[in-house]
């Protein structure tokens, strides 16, 4: 059982630094956003599990040959005042750290959920007062604002897409359709759940490069997935124009924007999770580039490789935890 | 049957468009006179007061304390509320105008040309 904890620790380290950095620099995710999304999710899940598992297995090692037996012995010490002689301070420390980390992750997930929902409810309340239903479009609201804005507000049966009248003035009907299809793809594909999980992951472990890289990548990938959905209804030039106009926040004819200085990096705060995906500076550039210079989708072999690594990531840590003898 | 949300909306619309503060009675009369609102019916003053106290709790409405009956007014304009709401959405992109610039700065000449052509054609 000892070696299992070292393998888990090695896996945790790989998944915390080199793997996400490599994936965030790769160019293929733009060619297969769905596969990349699956891989990011398995990296985050397997990373968290390995981190907790490594400490737990290492700490429980003196108590038994496998996790089930050792956990039972540990509970025996806690509840029935069994002998704790075999357990050193360092082991107790590792076990406590594992339990604390697990609690921290679950608690942050719950806390983020509550915060997002509170913010969404307030936002929806204000929308009731400030917007009016769009003509001929179910579950779509129009708000009076000059900036070209479109976003979706998830909420089960009460999910809505919101657009500004500024957007309607700037876009043609076909471009507007592109934007609305894009937003409803966010809702149908439940992107807000992904954003929630990765926002929580980031606020739980802000010092971990993975959590920031993963959140950025996921925000970018959901925009690409929604773009692909929109492309099934409108042609590419229409979508590109719509993205550029919404992304630029200004009519395209003002070429001043083209000559402006480059923008600084901007983070992706909770807001994206609240609204369930919205175009922003960070994601607009790769989205446009991907549409203007389309790359061929990944080959079956490459897709298969990426998906099987995702699958392995989900299978190996639990196996190492529960039944290490199966692997060795 | 109008929902509370519809009532709140009707009351806010009136308070936003009326320059001076209004009493619950004046509000009720104004709602009854409204040509084709979603509410468009006689309301009890107590209903209007309930809606007003909900709106007050949400920080949208305030009342003049020293007058009897109380006179209600909106805290800020509809435009301010909209701007605030849109800020929540747009906060991810503090400098949206720079997106195109950034794009042009980061892609090949051919891609930039294509984009310029697409945008010019709209």
> Roughly what fraction of the amino acids of chain A lie in strands?
under 5%
Question: What structural class do you assign from the helix and strand content of chain B?
Answer: mainly alpha
Series of H and E elements of chain B: HEHHEEHHH
- CATH homologous superfamily assignment of the largest domain in chain B: Winged helix-like DNA-binding domain superfamily/Winged helix DNA-binding domain
Helical residue percent band of chain A: 55-70%
Could you say which overall geometry of chain B the principal axes of the C-alpha atoms support?
Answer: elongated
> Strands of the largest sheet of chain B, in order across it?
1-3-2
- Can you tell me the CATH architecture of the largest domain in chain B? Orthogonal Bundle
Distance between the termini of chain A: 10 Å
CATH topology of the largest domain in chain B: Arc Repressor Mutant, subunit A
Q: Average pLDDT across residues of chain B? A: 81
Please indicate the percent range of residues of chain B in DSSP E strands (runs of 2 or more): 5-15%
Radius of gyration of chain A: 24 Å
* Rg result of chain B: 23 Å
Number of structural units classed as domains of chain A? 2
Major sheet of chain B: 3 strands, antiparallel
SSE pattern of chain A, N- to C-terminal: HHHHHEEEEHHHHHHHHHH
Shape of chain A: elongated
Could you give the order of strands across the largest sheet of chain A? 1-2-4-3
GO biological process, one term (chain A): proteolysis
Protein name (chain A): Peptidase M48
Cofactor (chain A): Zn(2+)
Keywords (chain A): Hydrolase, Membrane, Metal-binding, Metalloprotease, Protease, Transmembrane, Transmembrane helix, Zinc
